[in-house]
Write a structure and sequence with these properties.
154 residues, mainly alpha
Length: 154
């Protein structure tokens, strides 16, 4: 059994790591979703404001786990040196900071800053795409959530 596990560990790499991280965080999201306060209820406990996020997170968990199972027989790309992960860590840091400051500065500003930082880190240099597109998408999501769906955003 140990030789099988060690062979599996030797073949695992970046793709397997990504699938496991996705499954873990989506599972954590499902778990925390159940502990949140119910915002809207339409009289039925099934169709509430958490219905669609529950479906999406569940599909992410199932898909990521199926990808992990499908990758068992394949050899992944190596994870690589830490210096190659700097861009990934910058994007993750921008998203974590945006979520951290979202209650105080609001959804719109947090989403714009996170999206602009992500675009710049990933190499986008056209001002319309790294400034205009995040502003447009954040504005559409904010207006759609607050006025179209009546969902309060921070």
């Amino acid at each position: 059994m140990n030789s099988h596990v060690s062979q599996l560990w030797a073949k695992s790499g970046l793709q397997s790591l990504i699938c496991l991280i996705l499954a873990s965080f989506a599972g954590l999201g499902l778990w925390t979703l159940e502990t949140q306060v119910q915002v809207f209820s339409f009289g039925d406990s099934l169709f509430d404001a958490q219905f669609f996020p529950r479906i999406v997170l569940g599909l992410i968990v199932v898909t990521a786990l199926l990808c992990c199972v499908a990758r068992i027989k394949k050899t992944d790309e190596p994870i690589g040196p830490f210096s190659g992960w700097i861009k990934v860590l910058l994007v993750v840091g921008a998203i974590v900071l945006a979520l951290w400051f979202m209650p105080s500065v609001g959804f719109f500003i947090s989403a714009c800053v996170a999206a602009m930082t992500t675009a710049l880190v990933l190499g986008e240099r056209h001002i319309i795409l790294y400034v205009g597109l995040p502003l447009l998408v954040a504005a559409l999501v904010t207006l759609g959530a607050q006025h179209g769906l009546n969902i309060p955003l921070p």
